[in-house]
Design a protein that fits this description.
The chain has 411 residues and is α/β, with parallel strands linked by helices. It is built from 12 helices and 16 strands. The strands form 4 sheets. The protein has an 8-stranded mixed beta sheet, with helices on both faces. Helix 3 packs across helix 11. It is elongated and about 80 Å long. The N and C termini lie far apart (87 Å).
Length: 411
């Protein structure tokens, strides 16, 4: 107390009351700090108690955090139509204690995981974001301030998805861009257009997929399920690799699913299994093999880019979910219609992608596989580093060959 008296800090009635010349402030993410106007300095510890504090909870209903033209943080009360520099969350503060990350599971929703987060400094790119899980992923990010870009094959549907999100929140920053993963030319054109915007890229969600498709070849001469689910994303990431590295820390989330064997009897990646001829094609098997490619690709991507601040994880959104991905197979659609009352919602399906994209405890960590927001151990084949490296090399060759084929067909 003698030291406090000497410093003129003992003449307040409350232990938490600040001495003259001090002001309590808060950061955007709710941490409290203290400004000493006499000495022109700031500190995290309370000048009397030495304790650190943070704001408890989110902004009250009707309040919004903005930045004015001078770069100052302003809090707007839309209900009472007033503005203030004081953070209303400071009315309720708690001492800084070690808080264990909240555990999420198959019942968690994407918006629940993002609750209270400010993503206004993030740029997010999502393939297939106009419907299903991709749409809910995009919507969740956009409603928390992120600049979201939907990379979609059908631009008309993508623009409708943009309008739907902006109906939820007029200030949502979301736009649609054309990207057909079944065309390597379209993927490169999309990447060039994106890079011309001079935007960073903090989160890339490789979400688009097709399932139960009849056998067909793309303009690049490859089986369509394999190209849309894997090879198109492989090229997309390669084209945007420099942007991701410049935006570090950045994250890639690759949406996988159930998967099956991919290697031949010698333990090598078998091209005949990836892009089979018509007589050896079965749609579900092709889809499951492509989903194994997703995991191997994510693992190898993390190995290559993690030294540059880019991490990658593969996710399974969970079973028993009603989406439109099976719309081309009447039997699957019928079965899921019967089971719909027992299926997960699309918000719950988007949760694992969102979790891997923003969870603080996953910063810098990758090469993992998540199901229902839990880390899982996939099969030994899905964790085989030689298979992952082999798939990467094969994918590079197929991209080169496919682009050559596409150019020939265009002549």
């Amino acid at each position: 107390m003698a030291a406090l008296k000497y410093a003129g800090m003992d003449d307040t009635d409350s232990e938490d009351e600040l001495p003259p010349g001090w002001e309590e402030r808060s950061t955007k993410d709710g941490w409290v700090y203290y400004a000493n106007h006499d000495e022109m300095r700031t500190q995290w510890e309370h000048p009397k108690t030495g304790k650190k504090k943070r704001c408890a909870g989110d902004l009250p209903y009707g309040w919004e955090q903005n930045t004015n033209e001078h770069g100052q943080t302003v809090y707007v009360d839309h209900i009472n139509k007033r503005s203030t520099y004081f953070d209303p969350r400071q009315v309720f503060t708690v001492e800084d204690v070690i808080v264990k990350p909240k555990r999420y599971d198959g019942n968690s929703a994407a918006l629940e995981i993002l609750q209270g987060r400010d993503l206004s400094d993030k740029v997010v790119l999502i393939t297939g974001g106009n419907s299903g899980i991709g749409f809910e992923t995009a919507r969740s990010f956009a409603l928390h301030g992120a600049h979201v870009i939907l990379a979609c094959r059908n631009l008309s549907r993508a623009n409708k998805a943009v309008s739907s999100i902006q109906e939820d929140w007029q200030k949502a920053r979301v736009e649609a861009m054309m990207c057909d993963l079944a065309s390597l030319r379209s993927v490169r054109e999309f990447a060039d257009t994106f890079k011309a915007k001079k935007l960073p890229l903090h989160i890339l969600v490789c979400n688009a997929a097709v399932c139960t498709q009849p056998w067909s070849l793309t303009e690049d001469g490859l089986e369509s399920t394999f190209q849309v689910c894997h090879l198109g994303h492989f090229l997309l990431v390669q084209c945007l690799q420099e942007v991701l590295c410049r935006s570090a820390p950045a994250r890639v989330v690759v949406v996988s699913s159930e998967f099956t064997d991919l290697l031949d009897s010698c333990g090598k990646v078998d091209l005949a299994r990836l892009s089979p001829p018509r007589k050896e094609y079965w749609s579900m098997l092709a889809y499951n093999r492509a989903k194994l490619c997703n995991i191997l690709f994510s693992n190898e991507l993390h190995r290559r880019l993690s030294p540059h601040g880019v991490s990658s994880n593969a996710v399974h959104p969970g079973n028993m979910m009603y989406t439109a991905i099976h719309r081309t197979w009447w039997l699957m659609t019928f079965l899921f219609t019967l089971a719909r009352p027992f299926t997960k919602s699309l918000q719950q399906g988007a949760a694992t992608s969102v979790y891997c994209a923003v969870a603080p405890e996953l910063e810098g960590l990758g090469g993992m596989y998540f199901n229902n927001c839990f880390r899982c151990e996939p099969s030994a084949q899905a964790q085989d580093p030689d298979a992952a490296a082999g798939l990467w090399e094969l994918s590079e060759r197929l991209v080169a060959q496919g682009e050559t084929m596409g150019q020939i067909r265009a002549i």
